[in-house]
UniProtKB/TrEMBL annotation:
GO terms for cellular component: mitochondrion. This is Proline dehydrogenase. Residues 138-503 form the Proline dehydrogenase domain. InterPro entries: FAD-linked_oxidoreductase-like, Proline_DH_dom, Proline_oxidase. Its cofactor is FAD. Belongs to the proline oxidase family. The lineage of its organism: Eukaryota, Fungi, Dikarya, Basidiomycota, Agaricomycotina. It comes from Sistotremastrum suecicum HHB10207 ss-3. The keyword Flavoprotein applies. Keywords: FAD, Flavoprotein, Oxidoreductase, Proline metabolism. It comes from the Eukaryota. It catalyses: L-proline + a quinone = (S)-1-pyrroline-5-carboxylate + a quinol + H(+). Its EC number is 1.5.5.2. GO terms for molecular function: FAD binding; proline dehydrogenase activity. The keyword Oxidoreductase applies.
Length: 527
């Protein structure tokens, strides 16, 4: 995904669909959990420990992280070096951070994680090359259409994996699928232009800071009667058709997800999809009634919410945005799926705002200026969401579900403490300190509404800590698992390093991961 437009995609999809983020993660670094709560897990092989040590040694050098996309591009552009580079990357960074070349290749990893009581969030981590998107063999689908089919295929693999485990209810089906907007359209510029169009034409009386809130009129431009007769000056008819096609493809993907009982997590706020697919069947809009109520088998594992949209805590609007979204869900009878992350594009948002508002020096950027403000926003949202979950369970409704995406120890512990404090979990043992933190137990009602996620290959100490300290009938922790052919995900690997620079460089980041791997290697070799 391109760096600057990420936040704007949230607004874009808010309209387009009628709208893992990472931490800037300082926090507390803990050793593995205490023996009396630590669950059995297979020890990492010596070769994987050596690989991790090497990878995180490189990730500990900020200059290398910053230049990694350019370095990869340079070496892969030279015949001879390309093959050598791919071999090195495959056995280091690819093996550390990517689940496999295909979604089928991720199944052994999913099985391994489930043995450790962890779920998975599958992410086809490719984007569309705009030249390839418009220059394809007539006998084949365009690349972005192939991506649509791949995401549908990943839904089927996720569903089949859960079925192999005997998972029936939606609460226990903890293999989800990520949907990437930039992989589903022939040109990212269309998304950017549509985002600009929304910001120029959306009513600004919401009382929420820039870029405001999604509005019911956002999708009007995609209606057939509008797009075929009149064209906004900032959007061509071809671009409108591409946006309509994207909307229809997303509905098709989510229809399959609902049929197979797999939850999609969208890298933006997907209000319209939630309104359509996250509704109680008796309250769906009439235009979708025949489509989704005709086959009763669809309801067999339809635990709501089905679709999760992303809320980024580094945006100033997020507190009001979250409250407005909760209110909208209640008023319109659908379940709100929240994927709460901090956000990974802070420096780029500041620079983008500076360029757009050179004459308005007093205008504040859309993101918080200080990291501590983002941390405060994230932690405050934790409290709001846990309170909503408590009320939801009390009223026997099914109106909200939350994925807390965080690598931050402080925030993760706030979730655990908040679960106990809101009466959503019982405390079983331990008190105070990191090693002897309380072990809590949650029931099905909580397990089906709350999970915590981290990126695959990162923050394993935190993931293990959460597994050890939260007793849950289904996985409470899920790992975000990118997959794709090596050549396709090389850009992802370089960019992901930059996006996660704060995580890699902060306490508990690459240096700590390297230290942990080094200590384990020393223990294995020298006893």
């Amino acid at each position: 995904m391109f760096l600057v437009p990420q936040k704007r995609f949230s607004d874009l999809v808010a309209a387009l669909l009628n709208d893992y983020g990472t931490d800037q993660g300082d926090g507390i670094v803990a050793s593995a959990s205490s023996e009396n709560v630590q669950r059995h897990r297979e020890p990492a092989s010596l070769s994987s420990l050596i690989r991790s040590y090497g990878v995180y040694t490189i990730c500990s050098v900020p200059v290398i992280v910053d230049w990694s996309p350019a370095i990869l591009k340079f070496f892969t552009s030279i015949v001879g070096l390309r093959e050598l580079t791919q071999i090195v990357v495959r056995h280091t960074f690819f093996a550390q951070f990517v689940g496999g070349d295909t979604v089928n290749d991720t199944v052994p990893l999913l099985s391994h994680l489930r043995k450790e009581n962890k779920g998975g969030l599958l992410a086809y981590s490719v984007e569309v090359d705009e030249h390839e998107a418009t220059n394809h063999d007539l006998q084949s689908l365009p690349v972005y259409k192939q991506n649509v089919e791949e995401m549908i295929h990943s839904i089927d693999i996720a569903a089949d994996f859960e079925a192999s485990l005997g998972s029936v209810s939606g609460a226990s089906r903890k293999t989800w699928v990520a949907l990437k907007m930039t992989a589903l359209t022939p040109s990212s510029q269309t998304l950017i232009k549509f985002s600009d169009f929304l910001l120029q034409n959306r009513p600004t009386d919401s009382g929420v800071v820039y870029p405001g809130l999604p509005h019911p009129s956002d999708l009007n431009v995609l209606e057939e009667r509008t797009s075929l007769k009149t064209t906004p000056s900032s959007l061509s008819q071809e671009e409108i058709r591409a946006l309509v096609e994207l909307r229809d493809d997303l509905f098709r993907i989510c229809k399959r997800a609902r049929e197979r009982g797999v939850k999609p997590a969208i890298d933006a706020y997907a209000l319209a999809l939630m309104r359509t697919f996250n509704k109680n069947p008796s309250r769906r809009p009439s235009s979708f009634t025949s489509l989704f109520n005709s086959n009763q088998s669809i309801q067999s594992h339809d635990t709501q919410p089905l679709i999760y949209g992303t809320f980024q805590a580094y945006l100033r609007r997020t507190p009001e945005y979250l409250q407005a979204s909760i209110k909208d869900a209640k008023q319109n009878g659908y379940s709100l799926g929240v994927k709460l992350v901090r956000g990974a594009y802070h420096p780029h948002e500041i620079e983008h705002h500076r360029k757009r508002h050179t004459s308005a020096l007093t205008s504040l950027p859309p993101v918080w200026l200080e990291k501590r403000e983002t941390d405060t926003c994230y932690d405050n949202c934790i409290g709001v969401l846990l309170s909503e979950v408590k009320n939801d369970i009390k009223s026997k409704a099914n109106n909200i579900g939350v994925l807390f995406g965080t690598h931050n120890w402080v925030s993760a512990r706030k979730v655990i403490e908040g679960l106990a404090g809101h009466g959503l979990a019982s405390v079983e043992q331990g008190s105070g300190g990191l090693v002897h933190d309380p072990v809590i137990r949650v029931d099905d009602d909580v397990s089906e509404r709350i999970v915590i996620g981290q990126l695959y290959g990162m923050s394993d100490a935190l993931s293990d800590y959460l597994v050890d300290h939260v007793r849950s009938p289904s996985p409470f922790v899920i790992k975000y698992i990118p997959y794709g052919a090596l050549a396709e995900v090389m850009p992802y690997l370089g960019r992901r390093a930059i996006e996660n620079k704060a995580v890699l460089g902060g306490p508990g980041g690459a240096s700590e991961e390297r230290r942990r791997a080094g200590a384990e290697i020393w223990k294995r070799v020298f006893g």
